[in-house]
Design a protein that fits this description.
alpha+beta; four-stranded antiparallel sheet; 7 helices
Length: 186
């Protein structure tokens, strides 16, 4: 698959087969991620790969409880209902979670990790894998308990929790809005 096809067909995947993703493939995705640009070329990222189903289930439960406890007013009734459902797995039973963290305090930590995440997600699409950035996990992963679950040092900042797996089906393309472009010419 060429780059343009990967860009135009990458979608958030939330239904996966039970097939595990081989370690070598996960390493290739991370290798693609570290090719991303970073501010001042610091390359400040760290990657935590979680394939332990019990730990994934624990993180899912803890993250749901944390969101319901700390930001109920910010959550719509729809999200409150979803997060309150004990059967709902925020990781959609994906066989792997890759958490991209910043190892340095930087005003560009989020941007650096987001650039690496997009490279990883495009490489995954090109390899026939599906991915989804799991926002539900973010607020809990940055807590001391979240960092401890990932065995991250206290000064690391988890930014991008990306699930990876083999999609059950290709999500349909969603039409893109026409971009708002302002041209300033000489």
């Amino acid at each position: 698959m060429d780059l343009k096809e990967a860009i135009y067909t990458r979608r958030a995947v939330r239904e996966f087969t039970a097939e595990p993703v081989d370690e070598e493939i996960l390493r290739q995705l991370i290798d693609a991620a570290v090719q991303a640009p970073s501010a001042v070329n610091q390359q400040p990222w760290s990657f935590c790969v979680v394939r332990d189903k019990a730990l994934l289930a624990r993180i899912s439960g803890e993250a749901k409880e944390h969101m319901l406890r700390t930001s109920p007013a910010a959550l719509s009734h729809h999200f409150q209902d979803i997060l309150s459902d004990p059967k709902f797995d925020i990781f959609y039973r994906a066989p792997a979670l890759i958490v991209i963290s910043s190892v340095v305090e930087s005003p560009w930590a989020v941007e650096n990790c987001a650039l690496a995440a997009e490279n990883l997600m495009l490489a995954a699409r090109a390899a026939g894998l599906g991915t989804c950035w799991i926002g539900f996990a973010q607020t809990w992963l940055v807590t001391p308990e979240g960092k401890a679950a990932l065995k991250l040092p206290a000064n690391y900042m988890p930014v991008a929790p990306i699930i990876v797996g083999y999609p059950k089906a290709a999500p349909p393309a969603v039409p893109r809005k026409e971009p708002d472009i302002h041209w300033i010419d000489v």
